[in-house]
């Protein structure tokens, strides 16, 4: 259900904005999206995991707030990010 260290490192390398970037909005959204996808797959198999469902909703809300912030600050980067991640908007 959690994200592996190797996958997290790949996401940081792919979405970082500078050489030392590990926590920009783009990186955070990419990591959250990966975690959301993992939990969604888990919930398809375990339909009665209500604590996992609540955790999923918390992650979706956090990603939504970060995307809203990015939309306000840099619209072109926002559009590029949702295109790359395959998010609906």
Second-tier CATH architecture:
Orthogonal Bundle
Low-confidence stretches: none
Q: Which class best fits the helix and strand makeup? A: mainly alpha
State the name of the first-level CATH class. Mainly Alpha
At the fourth CATH level, what is the homologous superfamily? S15/NS1, RNA-binding
**Quick one: overall form?**
globular
Overall average pLDDT: 94
Largest sheet: none
User: Rg from C-alpha positions?
Assistant: 14 Å
Span of the ends, CA to CA: 26 Å
Number of domains: 1
- Helix-strand pattern: HHHH
Tally of helical segments? 4
Number of strands: 0
Task: Report the β-strand fraction as a percent range.
Answer: under 5%
What name is given to the CATH topology?
Answer: Helix Hairpins
Considering DSSP H and I runs of 4 or more, what fraction of the residues is helical?
Answer: over 70%
3D structure, described in words:
The structure is a single chain. This protein is an all-alpha fold and 89 residues long. The mean pLDDT is 94. It has one domain: Helix Hairpins, CATH 1.10.287. It has helices at 5-15, 25-45, 50-73, 75-85. It has 4 helices and no strands. Helices cover 75% and strands 0% of the residues.
């Amino acid at each position: 259900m959690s994200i592996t260290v190797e996958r997290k490192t790949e996401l940081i390398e792919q979405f970082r904005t500078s050489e030392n970037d590990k926590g920009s909005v783009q990186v955070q959204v990419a990591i959250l999206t990966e975690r959301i996808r993992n939990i969604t797959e888990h919930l398809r198999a375990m339909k009665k995991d209500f604590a996992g469902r609540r955790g999923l909703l918390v992650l979706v809300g956090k990603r939504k707030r970060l995307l809203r912030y990015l939309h306000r600050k840099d619209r072109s980067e926002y559009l590029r990010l949702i295109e790359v991640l395959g998010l609906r908007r």
